[in-house]
Amino acid sequence: MITYPITDKFKNHFISLYKHKKEELREYSSPWDYESGIHCVFIPLTKRIGVKVYREKYQVCGALKNQIRAFRHGIAPEYGKMFQIKVDKPINEWDIGPTTLYCHFTEIAQTLQEEVALDENNFPTGIEHAELCAKLKEINLYWVAEDLHRFNIGRIGNRMVCIDFI
Ligand SMILES: Nc1ncnc2c1ncn2[C@@H]1O[C@H](COP(=O)(O)OP(=O)(O)O)[C@@H](O)[C@H]1O
Ligand SMILES: [Mg+2]
């Protein structure tokens, strides 16, 4: 289980990282919604540890629960503690607020790069991907497997893992 100290200093720093990331996503996000995601904002903290941030409690709970199960089957990054941060002002001028960020720590996976061979649905071709889909189906994470395009997959060492669980 990934752990990381959540101090007041960390919280303030984290809110500024989140604001910065939101601005970056607004400016540079691709024409494909699914590249940067619509539920989760991902914030790397160290080489190994990152945070997945959601705006609704049910999303972080669901995502974490599924990641834990998949991790135990060897097809997800290691999971970390859930936490929430209250933000007393809107994140920026186009956001709602005050608000709460619902988060959990996670191990970072190396996301797949452009050179991966893709089929017409943007799914990587090849046996590894097929095996990952099959394992997700085996543990009843069907809809995750259906959404296993290249932005929802990563590598940890030589394992292919799913990184998006909601
Ligand atoms: N564990 C992780 N390691 C590395 N990058 C991640 C990880 N989780 C998410 N990301 C990055 O953040 C993006 C959005 O996260 P994702 O879980 O796919 O959210 P959404 O449900 O909004 O699509 C991913 O496409 C990926 O680039
Ligand atoms: Mg995604």
Q: Count the beta strands.
A: 7
Count, helices = 5
Low-confidence stretches: none
Secondary-structure element order, N to C = HHEEHEEEHHEE
Ligand species: adenosine-5'-diphosphate, magnesium ion
How would you describe what is shown here?
The chain has five helices and seven strands, in the order H-H-E-E-H-E-E-E-H-H-E-E. The chain has helices spanning 8-28, 33-36, 57-72, 127-138, 142-146, and strands spanning 41-44, 49-54, 79-87, 99-107, 110-111, 153-156, 159-162. The chain has a four-stranded antiparallel sheet, with helices on both faces. Strand 1 (41-44) and strand 2 (49-54) form a beta hairpin. The longest helix has 21 residues, at 8-28. The chain is globular. The structure holds adenosine-5'-diphosphate (ADP) and magnesium ion. Magnesium ion binds at residues 34, 37, 151-152, 164.
